[in-house]
């Protein structure tokens, strides 16, 4: 049986490798000239930056984590996470609820008081179940943590009102912090959150793309780059896939490309299915790369909730993940800005985005001066984040059902249209091969 895997990002190359390892005939069809998708890295002027935003390796899934680390072998460095939130000019420990002791007194009081008041109200059954993400945030953390950090940060990264987002994806995944931890954190006793990420790994050389290259090693001969899938036909119980110039025949089709790119390649898509697909929300990403002479703060990455500080929601310091990603005596910063077609950022030129980022980071005291900036660059990704709006569950069901009827398997972040990290993508690929392979 021959399988065609559409898309050569992390999911596509992992699927192809696993199918190949079990002796299947497989071909990967990737639109870009290079594989990697969101996990590509750019190397310029001695710096390496991850073009789909800063990536690190971590997972609660031990099988997946050991797969990622074993393919990287010697090319993996382990680092202790030191992550902060830039709050009113201070560096507050991340997650926010673990750094309350670093807040100004009034804000610390607001956060603890509202947390406790909310907890009592919840326990008395006075808080109705949340109907959207904004209500879930307040109901989980109280109005203080919600208003100081959670709501502004989430509205910045999602570029969408939290009150119009669904909360199904966080419920059960992010528990309410125990009140003891909130009190400890408020009086300065060390507490740790998100411990599965407290130590992370990163490739020593090559940026996150090194992981893709390591996974893809054995299957490079079956990867076809520069092949943008534009048409898919069913024929004799199989599929004929084309980029408008060449055709590829396969018995089975596994799509890892965004649904928004898959549907236009199919014929006779019912209007209701097309409308459901068009309504699926996603965010695009602008990554701004800055190479510096001299050092940067000893921080892994920094969340920036306040819109007044800059358009970016997160600043990371790749040279703190691996010293080999910047020339000796130099360091690097990667700023992430989410945007949507037609908004302020989508209309900005790359030069304008760079200028905004450098000026904002100098004002925030993160870059000492303009003279330190020795390299700048920008990369944009159309599909970066799935946005779970309140219509999401209804729409995704319609699109998935349609793909199932057409016998097209969906695996991967924008194919399943789920907020999957790298470990989630690899898990999906493993499970697919185990159950359907
Ligand atoms: C800012 C940011 C930070 C992240 N940080 C982390 C992190 O620290 N750790 C972590 O585990 N995960 C992280 N992730 C998530 C991670 O990037 C994704 O889970 C993973 O890269 C998704 O891989 P994929 O192959 O499913 O999708 P993609 O990478 O989107 O790959 C899809 C591929 O399909 C190709 N394609 C599209 N259309 C066509 C077509 N018509 N024909 C042929 N090919 C096509 C694309 O070119 C692309 O190569 C982050 C994501 C973002 C946006």
Q: Overview of this structure, please?
A:
A hairpin with a 2-residue loop joins strand 3 (41-44) and strand 4 (47-50). Helix content is 33%, strand content 24%. The radius of gyration is 23 Å and the shape is globular. Helix 3 runs antiparallel to helix 4, helix 3 (105-123) packs antiparallel against helix 5 (179-187) and helix 8 packs across helix 10. It is built from twelve helices and 19 strands. With 437 residues, the protein is α/β, with parallel strands linked by helices. It has a domain at 97-189. The longest helix is centred in the first third of the chain and has 26 residues, at 133-158. The chain has helices at 10-21, 62-72, 105-123, 133-158, 179-187, 209-216, 259-262, 271-278, 350-363, 392-405, 413-417, 422-436; strands spanning 2-6, 25-29, 41-44, 47-50, 76-80, 84-87, 90-93, 199-203, 223-224, 231-235, 238-242, 247-250, 252-255, 281-293, 301-303, 314-316, 330-339, 373-387, 408-410. The strands form five sheets. It has a seven-stranded mixed sheet with strand order 7-6-15-16-17-14-18. Strands 9-2-1-13-19 form a five-stranded parallel sheet. The chain has a three-stranded antiparallel sheet with strand order 10-11-12, with no helix packed on it. Flavin-adenine dinucleotide is lined by residues 6-12, 29-32, 37-39, 52-53, 55-56, 228-229, 256-258, 261, 285, 336, 383-385, 412-414, 420-423, 425.
């Amino acid at each position: 049986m021959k399988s065609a895997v559409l898309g050569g990002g992390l999911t596509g190359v992992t699927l192809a490798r696993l199918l190949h390892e079990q002796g299947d005939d497989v071909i990967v069809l990737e639109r870009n000239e290079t594989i990697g998708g969101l996990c590509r890295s750019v190397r310029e002027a001695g710096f390496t930056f991850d073009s789909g935003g800063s990536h690190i390796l971590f997972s609660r899934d031990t099988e997946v984590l050991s797969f990622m680390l074993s393919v990287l072998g010697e090319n993996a460095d382990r680092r202790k996470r030191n992550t902060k939130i830039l709050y009113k000019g201070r560096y507050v420990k991340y997650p926010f609820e673990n750094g309350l002791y670093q807040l100004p007194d009034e804000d610390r009081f607001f956060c603890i008081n509202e947390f406790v008041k909310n907890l009592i109200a919840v326990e008395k059954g006075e808080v109705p179940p949340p109907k959207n993400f904004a209500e879930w945030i307040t109901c989980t953390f109280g109005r203080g943590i919600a208003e100081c950090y959670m709501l502004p940060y989430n509205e910045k990264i999602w570029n969408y009102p939290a009150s119009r987002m669904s909360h199904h994806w966080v419920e059960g995944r992010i528990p309410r912090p125990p009140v003891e931890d909130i009190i400890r954190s408020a009086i300065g006793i060390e507490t740790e959150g998100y411990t599965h990420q407290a130590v992370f790994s990163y490739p020593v050389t090559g940026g996150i793309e090194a992981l893709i290259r390591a996974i893809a090693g054995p299957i490079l001969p079956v990867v076809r780059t520069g092949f943008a899938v534009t048409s898919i036909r069913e024929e004799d119980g199989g599929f004929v896939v084309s980029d408008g110039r060449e055709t590829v025949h396969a018995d089975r089709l596994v799509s890892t490309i965004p649904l928004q790119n898959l549907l236009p390649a199919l014929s006779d898509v019912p209007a209701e299915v097309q409308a459901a697909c068009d309504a699926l929300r996603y965010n695009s990403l602008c990554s701004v790369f800055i190479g510096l002479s001299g050092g940067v703060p000893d921080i892994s990455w920094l969340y920036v909730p306040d819109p007044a500080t800059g358009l970016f929601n997160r600043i990371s310091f790749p040279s703190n993940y691996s010293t080999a990603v910047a020339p000796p005596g130099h360091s690097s910063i990667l700023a992430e800005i989410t945007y949507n077609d037609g908004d302020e950022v989508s209309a900005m030129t790359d030069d304008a985005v760079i200028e905004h980022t450098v000026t904002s980071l100098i004002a925030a005291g993160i870059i000492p001066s303009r003279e330190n900036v020795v390299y700048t660059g920008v990369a944009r990704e159309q599909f970066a984040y799935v946005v779970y709006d309140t219509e999401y569950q209804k729409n995704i069901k319609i699109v998935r059902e349609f793909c199932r009827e057409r016998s097209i398997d969906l695996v991967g972040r924008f194919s399943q249209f789920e907020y999957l990290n790298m470990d989630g993508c690899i898990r999906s690929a493993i499970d697919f091969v185990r159950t359907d392979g």
